[in-house]
TrEMBL record:
<dbReference type="InterPro" id="IPR013320">
    <property type="entry name" value="ConA-like_dom_sf"/>
</dbReference>
<protein>
    <recommendedName>
        <fullName>Concanavalin A-like lectin/glucanase</fullName>
    </recommendedName>
</protein>
Amino acid sequence: RHYSPGQVALSSSGVELTVSPVSASNTTRVPVAGVYAKAYDWGFGSYHLQAEVTSIVGTVSAFFVYGSSTSAAVMEYVSKPNWGNGSQFIRDTVAPQIYDTKGRIEVYIHVQLTPCFDSCRAQTVHNWGFSWRPASVTYGLDNTYSTKLTTNVPQTPGLVAFSSWSDGNPNYSQGPPKSNATFTVEQLWVVHNAT
């Protein structure tokens, strides 16, 4: 992944984060985008993002609070082809992540909605959200909160961020995309504890 300011643009629709195909001269660095808060004081609270994901396959659109590799609450929309039945999916997860003997994330620290319900399809603006409390993180789309994780719930504040990326991983993002893929964020609103 190669994060670059040139992959972020402001438009009348909002903040556009674009993942681009790799160049012929550099096939190992995928041009990707992200917006990250400077402060690491984003704690327990209610986090919401109004955004439109891309229909172009091979990317991940993410919304998260990240404190460290052992403290994060994450929502990801994966626009990956040929995953099981070929559907894109949403993954809600917390960190630290724990893996089984086959290298898969243990089921009790993430929920993967495959195929994601009809309302998460690309090219429509949706409200992403999660409620982070000391004992749980509850995730939802368009005010339907369907996932509640209670194991490895983050306990330390972090930074709030949203990003669009691909790393060519055949087991997750696949990609990089064959054409520019844009994740458009219209609004971000948060009510959180900063103590």
